[in-house]
Every structure is written in structure tokens, then in C-alpha cells.
Records
---
Amino acid sequence: MQKIKDFIVNSRVWRSFFRHGWPDNPLDRSLVMTTNIFFHLHPVKVSRKSLRWSYSFGLGIIAAIVFTVLTVTGILLMFYYAPTVERAYTYINTLQSQVPFGQLLRNMHRWGAHLMVIVVVFHMARVFYTGAYKPPREFNWVVGVILLLMTLGASFTGYLLPWDQLAYWAITVGTSVAGYAPGLGPTAKATLLGGPEVGQEALTRFYALHIMVIPAAIALITALHIWRVRKDGGLAAQDAEEEGETNG
Amino acid sequence: MAKKTPQPESFSPETAPTKTYSLVELVKAPTTMADRGPDNTIFAFPAVALIELLLTLGVIVVLLGMSLAVNAPLEEIANPNTTTDPAKAPWYFMGLQEMLEHGHPTLMAVALPTLMVLFVIAIPYLDNDHRGSGVWFTSARGKRITLLTALYALIVMPIYIVVDTKYPLREILRGQFPDFLLQTVIPGLLISVIVLLPLLILLRSKPTSREIVLVMFTMLFVSAIVFTLAGFLFRGPGFELYWPWNMPGGYSPWDNL
């Protein structure tokens, strides 16, 4: 048994996949982080304080996880949907009544979308109240605000897609606000809707924004956001430790 | 990981071309490790990996549980000729829609929200007090300031919404004064006074810039929550104020999710 294991682990194929040994010692525990794409955004060692639940509540990571769930359920939904005024509603109805787990799939996407907005807002509040936007993290705060706005955009564009009364009037009311902006407001509204009111053009545009433009931008900017967390020295909890602060 | 290089016998610059350090300057400053306790870090693997795995499972369980319990709403097919009553934006924009009830749209739905977003973006550049990063509320005083401001906003904002809805000065005096004054200037001044009052009180006690942004952010954050809840939960048919559990016509705000 040991021989077989050694043979596999020492084979060229295995070693080309995994460039570290079993992570039960400091060297391999370092290598597992630095040679693995899922972990390379993390440092090899983290401060105990930044792991404390009552410090961050894990909100940033939870936001990223919910986004991943939304991506997976969203892609699955795309298999049962087309953004046309005539068919969109029927597709959703069919999905709910005839596709196995279709209703569950849509529910997860819907509640996940609401959850993501809430989590991202609370993440911002956490970062603010812990003063984690202070130098050198100012720019990452700005990136975070942009991500919050994009989260709202992702949710809002998705809201229209079922093409029911709820969707139609929510988007009508929501986009009418843009029209009140002096100067560019009416143009912005017309660009978003592709016409004077919510119709096929709006559905097409919202669909493209919802399934491609905004998620791709969120994914890229999130990568920047997480990378900057590393570059700025990890969670700000570590700074507090270095300053020797005790309250909190 | 540094590459292992054969160590030369002596460390003179000629014999040690691979020497990677040199004394450049002496500075008076705390060194990175001197006079410190043992560094309080642990290996990210497996601790962080496990935390992330558990969070992933937790998120999936919560979402799955909720999705099994409650179905996403689906109403009749969209019909541009039949307006729903009330017609509401998605819940996270209900704060904006609530704002629209209290003054001119350009002020309430465009100018004030834009100012708010700009303020939030500018926070790191307004707060030039670099101390206390990574500590909740920075200090005990900061915590007290935050709690008092939140309490103030929680009391004043609902009162403002109810009073302004029941006795809208703008409508009562309509026609007697220019519209611009009634719809934009007066509501704008009123909101500014309400929002800036805690800041004015704070300014009398020589606050740090951190405390100033604590007051402003808390004021705006709690107000945004109050307005969002007011619009989402307390507005019923005709966009009138009702108790959420006492909506007329079988309307439930929760159906709008």
C-alpha cells in the first residue's frame, strides 16, 4: 500500500500537478499556499487577530462565496431562458413547473441575489467601523464602493428578466429616477432602456448587462480588491496589533 | 524561499559577491521584531482553508434552506397597460423612492444620493487621522459617538418621514410661494439641518477627523436603512404609510422581494 502511494506521489504526473508534499510541516504548508491558485491570494501566515470572527464576521469572503453561488445558479438558469418579451415569462413558468429542481434553482438565485446585496452593505459597514480604510488601504475602499454599486447594478438588471408585473413595474419605477437627473439623466435612461419605456430593447440590454458585462466586471474588480488586501498588508486587524492597541 | 548559496569563508565584499545585505543608514525607529512578543501568526493552511470551506457550506445550507422554505415571487406576465398598486422599485432602491415623497425629484433622488455616494468614496481622504486602524469604532469615545448618532437617526428620521407625509408643508403652501422654494430649498435645508446637527454638536468637543466621519457615516447609513425600510415595509397601496402587518387590499410588502 505504502509502495503504491509512494509510486503515485513520486510519479511525474502527480508532481506536475502538486508541487508540495503533504502539508503537515512549515515548508509544505507554505508551498501549499504559494503553489496553489485557490490559495495564492492568501499569505502563508495570518495573524490570529484577523481570523477572529468578531472582527470581520467573514463578510468579504461570504460575499465572494454568494457571488460564486450566483454565478453557478445563473449559468444553469441560462439553459432555460431567452430574453424575449414573448417567451421570457413562459420560460420562467416552465422552469418552475416542469424542470426538475427548476423552482429551487430560481429560488437560490433570487435569495442569493438579495443576500449578496445585504452582505456587501454590511461588509462596507464593517470595514468603515473598524477604520480599515485608513492608509494604505484608501484605494481599496474606493474599489469596494465601486463593487457595492456594481452589486446593486447586477441585482437590478436581473430583476427585469422574469418579465412579470413585479419586474416590469420595479424597473419602470427604478429607471424613472435616472430621468430626474438634470443634463445627462434622460440620455442615461434612454441608453439603459434602449427606448422611451421598458420593452424588448430594455430586456435585451438588461440581459447582456446581467449575464456578461456586470458579472465579468465584478469578477475582475474583485480580483483586484482581494489582491490589494494582500498588497496593503492583509486585514487591518494586524495593524492594530502592531500599534499595541488593546480595546476592540 | 531564498536559494541556498555556498557560504564564503569571510564576508568582505570581494569574497562575498552574493552578500544580500548592507548597512545603509541608522534610524531611530521601532525595529520590526525587537522587543516584541512571539509573533501572533499561524499558518494559513489549513486554518483559513477550513474556515473558507465551512463558510461555503454554511452559505449553501442557508440559501438552500431558504429556497426550500420560500418560493421566489412570480406575478402575472408584464402588462404595460395595468399599473400595479403600489409600484415599487427593488427593495434596495426603496430608500430612493421614499426620498421622492419628500421633495423635488432632482434634489431627493439625484442630488442627495449623489452627495452621499461621493462622501462615502471620499471617506479615506477626509479622515487624515491614521491611528486606530483595525479597531472597532477606534476608541470607547468613538463607540459612544456612533451609538448616540445611530439612536438620534433612528428616532428623528422616522418622525421626519411621518410628519412630512401627514403634514406636507410643500403641499399646504403650494401656490403661495415659488415651487423651487417649497420643493427644493426648504426640504434641502430641513434635511441638511437634521443630518448635520449631530456633527455640529460633536464639533464643540474638538473631535478627531475619524470621529467626524464616524458621525457622518453613521447618520447617513442609519438614515438610509430607515428610508429603505419605510419605503419597503411601510408603504402600501397609493404609496400611503401603513403598518406592514395591516396593509389594505391583501397587499404584503414581502411579496415584492
---
Amino acid sequence: MNLSKIYALSLRHIFLIKSSFPRLLDLLYWPTIQIFLWGFISKFFTLNSTYYNNTVGVILTAAILYDFLFRSSISYNMMFLEEIWSRNFTNLFISPIKISEIIAALTLTAIFRTLIGMVPASLIAIPLFGVSIFSVGPALIFLLISLYIFGVTLGLLVTAGLIRFGPSFENIAWASLFFLAPLGCIYYPVEILPEWLRVIANALPLVHLFEEMRNILMNNTVSYLPIMKGFLISLLYFTFGVFIFYLAYFGARVRGTLINMGE
Amino acid sequence: MNVKIKNLYKKFENKIAVNGINFNISENSTLGLLGPNGCGKTTTIGMILGLIKPSKGEIYIDGLDINKNDRIKLLEKINFASPYIELPKKLTVRQNLEIFARLYGVRDIENSIDQIANDLDLKKFIGKKTGELSSGQKNRVSLAKSLINEPKLLLLDEPTASLDPDIGDFIRGYLEKYKKNKNVTILLASHNMSEVERLCDEVIMMKNGSLVDEGTCNQLIKKHGRSNLEETFLKIARGK
């Protein structure tokens, strides 16, 4: 992989963010709104729920981590969509950059885009609601890495869909995470789901990661086994996502859709 | 770079876009690719760029098959400009050129951009966002992007389409000068016959995916008993 080319593609998106205040505002706005909304919901539940009564901030921490996953995926999709919207798609695919370098550039830039919104939002939660996601401890790093890999994987699958089906697949980009959220057991234990759905839910990394997050905050103990399980499942899906992306790319070359992809 | 196209064929579902065409472009020459809309010109260009996989046939660039050899290595020496693809509109001209210079592995980026901005008269608007430019300015920026890596094979799809005569003439003049100074092979798809007569050493005519005629402009004009290339094109396109 050529780092200079990866940097070039990342630079394209950094220039875009730097040059547009509304874009920057958009990155900051949604995570902050989420913090406010879930902060008040969290406060209400901690005061009125027996399940959450001793653990201030479990819901808000879950909301922040879920938003991190959501932003990672959306960032990845958005950067790819920018190429389609700007009709730069052909220029990109005729330049001497490998598919693996495109994936690497989008993956690395998506974290930058995600953190622009998530860092301020997470810091705001501390004085406003007395909730710090850092109270999860060192396990937080592994949770974030696993969620990031899964977020990027969803981005990969959606962008593969964009290459395969064209810009009309855009709506799926926005809907993909809402579809998985109920099965991810972000705010509730997996036992809430009917037994047949648990099988599907357990095949997702989210269940294991959010279950352990709740365990850490409610019982003050850390078990790295579910985190490792979540991480490995994320990695497995990521490999699958890369495979699907390549498949979509080679299919698009056969169908000739790479040369006139645009709005 | 020389290009050899052997029995190139492309079928999209039920439509044959390119039907077993053969042609060569010798090193440092300009070949005009002519034909009515939908005749397979863009598909042919897409296959030469490796963007479209041929159903059958081979494309050799300097003896290397773009579909079998290292496409990325070949793409470092190739570039393409078309008014139908654009550069990111929210980025300035300089930012766009910098990104593509990096993607193509250009060594002295600053100097290369300054040089090309000077040659194509981009200096007045190099700091402006690309989306704010007029179509003539955008066209010159697109050409600058296609020359940023000093390509050995340059593919141009209607480089002066929708430009006023003055800017069109400026671009044609620049391409003439560029070809004289650099060792570059050009494939030019155009509907502007005076442009083709001015720039191309040879032309090939396509119709319904097939190659129907080839030769120098003068040879074709003479062969079809017409007084210029435009009339010759109309005769071939209309089958009269």
C-alpha cells in the first residue's frame, strides 16, 4: 500500500471539511443533540427505574457509544457519496490508486470525521449530566476499536451497494444502522428479545460489546472475553465487507457503471 | 506509449456496445475517434482506461495487457479528461490539482502546479473553488488535471465541447504545442471536425459499435468524395 496515495485521498476530505463551516457544524450538531436527548432520558430512568437506579449514565454511555458507531458508518458512506455527488467518481477510479488504498483512506479519514463530532459531545456530557464515558476505564479503547471496525464494515457494505446499484442505493446508507439497532441490544439486555431473535443478535458484535459495557458500569468488573468476542466478530464482518466491496467493484467493471456514476 | 486494440468486444446485457474493433495508435501520434452518439466511443475509452472490462479482446499499452498486467503501474502514465466528469466543486483549483498530483505520485508538486497553471492560464482563479468557475475555466482545470502527471498516453473525450470559439481555440493551440514538446500519444474523441482535422494524424470512424473506416483526414475525405471531414462524417454516419 502506498501511504502517500492514502494521504492524498484523505486530504481531499480534510480540505472539504476545513473549507466548509456548515459541514463542520453538521459534524458537531448531531452528536451534541444526541447527548442532550439521551442525557435527559438517562436522568429520568436513573431516577425512576429499578434496573438503572444505581447506575447513573449507563443509558447515556450506551447512547454515546452507539452514536460513535453510527457516525463511523455514516462518515464512511458520506465520503464515498461525496465522490458520486461531485461527479469525481471516474477521476478517482482512473487514477493509479488500488482498491485497498481507497478502503484504507476512507477508513482512516472516517475516524477523523467521527471524532470531530464525538469528542466535544462526550466532553459536554461530563459537566451537563455528570456522565463520563471514560469511567468505563481502559476497556473503552477496545470497545471503541471494535465498534469502529463494525461501523466501517457497514460503510463498506453500503458503498459496495452504491457501486452495484448506483446512487439510488443512497437511502439504504441512512437506514442501515437503524435496521441493526434493535438487534444490537444497545439499551437493554439480550434476554428482552424473543429466543429466535437472540440467535441473530448474538451473531452481531454489538450485543457482546454493549452487554459488557453495562456490566462494567453496573458491577464495576471487567471481563475481556465478551469484548474479545465482539472484536473478533467485527473483524470477521470487516473481512466479509472488504470481499463484498471487491466483488461490487469487479461487477461494476463488467457492467460499465464506473464511467458514468453521478447524481 | 503505443496502443494496440485487438478484436475488442463489449456486450451490456442484450446490447452490443463495441463489436470486435481493431486499431493501433503509434507512439507520439494523435488518433481521432469519431462516430455518432452511442456508437461506442466512451465504452472504448472506458475499456482502454481499465474502467470497463471487455467481454472479449485485448488492449495492449506498450505491450502490456491492461486487464492482465499491473493496471495501476500503467495508469501512472495515462490520464483522461472529459467535460462529463468533474472535479470536487467545493475544493479550490489548487487543492484539486494537489490531490491528483499526489495520487499520480508527482514529485515536485508545487512547481508542477505552478507550471501548469501558468501554461493553461489558471493563475487568476487557482485559489477559487472549482464549482464557482465558468465552464471554460472548468474545462482548462480538467485539462490541467489530466496533464498533471505528464502522461505518456492522454485520452480526451470532447475536450472543447460547449466552449466558446476563443477558449476552444486556446485549448486546441495548447494541445498542439504540448504534443510538440512532450512525447505523448493522444486518443481524441470529438464531434468537432475542424478540431479533429487540426489535431489528429489519423482518424477511425465508429458506427453501431463497429469500426467502419480509418485513415488520415485527407485520405477519408478523398475516399468518400467530399470536400471536408464534416461532410465525410455525415456521409458515413448517415450511410449515404
---
Amino acid sequence: MHSIPGRRVIMALFLVFLLLPIYWLVNMSFKTNAEIVSTMTLWPHAPTLQHYKRIFTDESWYSGYINSLEYVVLNTIISISVALPAAYAFSRYRFLGDKHLFFWLLSNRMAPAAVYALPFFNLYSAIGLFDTPWAVALAHCIFNVPLAVWILEGFVSGVPREIDETAFLDGYSFPRFFIKILVPLIASGIGVAAFFCFMFSWVELLLARTLTSVQTKPIAAIMTRTVSAAGMDWGLLAAAGVLTIIPGALVIWFVRNYIASGFALGRV
Amino acid sequence: MDKTVNQKAWFLVAPVFLVVAFSAVLPLMTVVNYSMQDTFGNNQFFWNGVGWFKELLDPSTDLGGRFLASLGRNLFFSLVILAIEVPLGIVVALSMPRQGWTVAACLVILALPLLIPWNVVGTIWQIFGRPDIGLLGYVLNAIGIDYNYVSNDIDAWVTVIVMDVWHWTSLVALLCYAGLKSIPEAYYQAAQIDGASRWAVFNAIQLPKMNRVLLIAVLLRFMDSFMIYTEPFVVTGGGPGNSTTFVSIELVKIALGQFDLGKAAALSLVYNLIILIVCWIFYTVMTNAGAERKVQAESEPAVDFKASAGLKPVPALKPKEGVA
């Protein structure tokens, strides 16, 4: 690939621009509140782990991370397992209403979460799922399932049809072909789709906050508690923020080689 | 490659249909139901027909004024961030290192802002921009610029826009990078032999190859910025005054703040309709581009083969590694 002149400088500047606010958050999480409020220091002069210690020892704090991860993982599993057969169907067959169905799915990916907040609240209260991880996991399906279908359809289309035909000639039944042959072939695509489901479920707050109250509050909602009568607990807020970045960073590290094609939704 | 007609495929699609219908159709029916009614509390509802819709589209009423103002702000916001993020994303994609460990490092750092929960993105910028404890606010004030996003409209706008650029330019850059990577090296060699200038290479080779991904980027960014809620809500709370109140913020205020179900539902439907129309344009343009690509591919099959092979580079590289 041919690049432009001065590319190293541009890239370096952009990366600094991306990292500077994150650095500031990390920096603050290691400072005492007294240091944050009183002086402007570029690095913590009296580094402290007190904020992290508090999060890891206080159950009302660390349970938030567990709650969030719980519905994110549930949602990823549901999304991928229902999207896989559908992606195969969209990629290989024409059937009544296929194009309309695909468009309808896609339009749900674009629907603003704010529109659904209140009706979801009513719906999940009525069926007794309110304040469980299932409610959030199912609610997040509205944008993750269409996305998973879309990405996986691209990857399934990359598998030559001859492979299906050969497998069926060899006497494979459909479920066996699906699990033994197709799934391993598009494993990287499944990884990319799972990454996207994880990402969009992890970063969403509005629905997650609306559908939970006490038992399963996500970490994002708990973070708003740092405002108290004594003012903002900035250090604690920063530490909680840093800890929400870590799962995402870990996930990126594992899929870094697939990021580029994944972001093009398998369609470049 | 023609697809075979097979109605049994519906069995494969049924799970998706059920899951999405459960989360989309049922709530949407509730919204339609509310939008036609008025309530004075106590769960007593009255038929209101299209009253709310009339009010919503009439700028002289309170509801209509608020809706149209937030819609205008939101459109302006979307246009500004597109005008910044798309060119910047292209430049960043062109600046990606060619090989080595730096590629992976750059990709990971680029993707990092995308995986930060949206309210934390808001928190990061809230802290970063504060004149008393934030680096940005402190430095700007120290060099003599009076910057305070809590009390000044323009500062609040600039903060929200810079935050969105910080948050989402990477998406555009990564999409463009994926597009650039699919260009076969032979194209560049041909250009070099012809003595093409840097600009000619960009204009004639790279830009056309990025068309499709740029389309995805522009439309994804438009949709997502059009329904932005969490980040500006955390940073500015929609203020100062109403200056950064976007449509979603207005909607949540009406629905969950005032519990004005009828008005909120009517707003939701109109909002959804706008998104649906844009989405339809997106889908049509995408499928047309796909059809065009197919025609193009048939006329030059070798190129298309290479482009699609770029998706799964591992098997192509393996024999080479074995030799080495």
C-alpha cells in the first residue's frame, strides 16, 4: 500500500490525540482527591491505589462489572447462535420475502434506543424479566442480531458453494454439515461478529440502565453514584472508568488481526 | 453465482425473526398505541387521534418547537462531524504503517475509543475539558482562551464535536484501511510505470476502491450521530440552556422525565420514520453498488478474485512460510 508523505507524523499526532484523554483518566485514577482538586500535576506525585482498592472490596461496586459482563456474554451467545443459520439462509437461498426481511432487520439496527426505552420497560416488567440480565441481553438483540446476520452473511458468502454440495454428496446431514464443516470454515467471521456483539452490548447504557434497578445494575449506572453531597469523588470515578476500558482492550488484542476486515463487515 | 429458491430457508431464519420481532414489533405496537392517546394519570387513557402529530410538526406549539429545534441541531451536528471525520479518517488510513509490529499497535490504539462505554467516553471528556482539573481546559485557559463548556454555548458545541471526532474517527479510518488493503500491489506498479503522481494514484486507484467502505462509513456515522444520546448527556446534560439538546435527549426528557407518553410516542414514531427513510436510501445504494461491482467483476475477473482473496489471507500465505 502506498502512503502519503509525512505519514509518520500524522499517525503519531493522531495517536497522541486518541491517547491523551485516556492518559488523563488513568493519571487521575492514581491520584488522591486532594491532589486532583488542589494542584495541576501531569503525573501522580503521590500515587495511590485507594480508589481501585475500594472498587475491588466494595460489593456494590464490583458486582456492577459482573452484572455488565453477564448480560454482554448472554447477548453475544444468543445473537451468534440465532444469526448463524439465518446468515446461511440469506447467503445461499432465495425465499419468499427475503429482501424485505433483510431490510427490516437492518432497519432495527438503526432504530434509536431512546425510542424503545419506555416500551421495553413496560414489556419486560409485564413478563417478569425486569431487573434480570435476560432483559438487557434480549433488548440488546435488537441491534446486535441484525449486525451479526449482516457480518456472518458476508463471511458465509466467501465459502464456495461446492463445499456444501460435496458435503451433502458425502452423506452429511444438514446439522452435521453446519457444525462440522461450515462453522470451522467461518470461524474468523464468527470471531469478528462476536467481537462486534460484545462491543455494542458493552458500550450501550440507555437500555441497560432503563431495564435494571437493584439486582443487576450495570457498572455504567453505578458510576453515577460518585456524585455525593461532599462533591464529586473524581478519583473513584476515574478508577471505575479505567476498569471499564480494560475488557474492551483485552478483546481488541485478541482480534487485532481481524479488525480491519471485520470493520468492513466482511464485505471489502 | 445464482441463489437457489428454497422456501425451507424460512426455518433457518425463523429464530432471528422471532427474537427480533419480540424486541421490535411488540414495543413498536405499544408506541403506536400511546401516540394516539392522552392520559391524565391513574392509567386512564383518552383517544387523541393524530393530535400529537399535529402539535409535533407545528413549530408554534411547545412540543413542536422543541422537536424541530432539536432536529435542526441534530442535523447540523451530523453534518459537521461527517465533514471532519470522513476526510480525517481517510488521511489516517493512508498514514497507516505498511508492515511490522507497528501495524498491530496502531490498529489496537485506533480501536480503543470504540470499545469504551459511551458514558465513560462522556466522563473522560467531562474530566479532560474541565478548567479546574482537566488538562485540556486548564491548558486552554492558561494560554489565554476563555474556555468553559458548562456555561458557554460555543465551547459546549466544540467539546461535543471534538469528543465525537475522538470517539468515531477510528471507525472511518479502520473501514478505509480495510478498503485500501484490498488493492492489489499490481495497480501501484502499473501507476509507477505510467509515472502517475501521488494525487493521481489517490484519485484514480485508492478513492474508487474505497467507495464502498466510505459509503458504509458515512451512513453508519450519520445514523449513529443522528441518535446520539449518552455522550453529550454526560458531558453537557443538553446544556447550557438547550444548546446541545439533540433529538434523543429531548425524547428521553419527555418520555422518562415528564412521563408524557403520548407526546413521546408521537415523537418516537416521526423520529423512527426519518431514520427508516435514510436507512432505505442506504440499503438501496448499497445493493446497487453490489450489483455494479458484480458487473465490473465479470468484466475483469482476475481483479475480483484477488480482492476477495484478501479476506482470508492466511491460506494464501501458508505455502510461503513452509518454503522459508
